[in-house]
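Re: weekly structure request thread

Next one in the queue (337 aa):
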Amino acid sequence: MTPSRRRLLIVTPEFHGYWRSIERAFGELGYEVLTHCYDAVPRREKLYNKLRHELPAQVTGSGRHLSDDTVTRRAVLGLSEARPDFLLVVRGDALTEKFWQHAASLRIPTVVWLYDELRRMRHDPHQLAGLARIASYSAGDVRALTELGIPALHVPLAFDPAISIPERGRGGEVTFVGARYPKRERYLRELVAHGVPMRAYGRGWSDHPIDQARTWRLSSFGGPSGRDLPLDEGYAVMKAGLATVNIHGDQDGFTMRTFEASGVGAVQLIDRADVSEFYDPGQEVLVFETEDELVDLCRRLIRDEVDMRRLRDAARKRTLSNHTFLHRARELQRLWA
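Done, posted below.
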């Protein structure tokens, strides 16, 4: 299908500004694109929502920081004002039935793109399938949905080569950029214990008082750390470092970092051999399974600078050829055909 300036509304979480990359990709395909970030709040509301919703969410583990009614009311208004020809909802499990029924009443072809596993979201798959076509970054969820008789398309995450990356001199640290989870902390502490030069970036790692307050914690990582980085600065850190580590948690989908690290031309150390679906292990990425293997890989990096340059170049070339947001937008638009 070749759209002729058909209007697309993207309803999405802010999620580090990735909506801009999705918007840009569909714009390249000829759509007139509007975006509504359903979890964005005016600055004056942030403190209220932190106390009213985010603090209780820390106790319940729900991860919420806005009420579902607030999110839905704003999304319904955004949908009514935009009156799009097509609707793409990214994740969307904070939206109540009122939003989905409103979209259905307008008879807008709707696709939902899930970047988390269904077990961590509040979607009812059967109900959702009656209102939207489903795409997911999780191959496991796509298989499970198909077995239930629910059509679903596997659409992985991606890299946006249009983001300008600030120049940095080549650094000598192994980096990690992302959220702090127990598995990640275990691996990174092992690097520190073995004297590997490393640094973890993000509010969950940072010892800055503001970051500790924002993440409701008192504990320190105990290793070299830095504060949250804007997306372009995060790319610069990964590209300039000795290597960057990509550690997954309880998930079968591949993180955005999988495509970003390779896309910026970093040496990616990744904890999953099934990355071979996207990259050639040993030639485009380096795979580890245990803490000891990660330490050994880091030591090898210091010795094999020439080989690592080849790996960086090959990883970036593969990403630009197969794994950009434009590639994903082309896959998603098939669901409107």
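The first helix runs from residue 18 to 28. The mean pLDDT is 90.
Next request, please.
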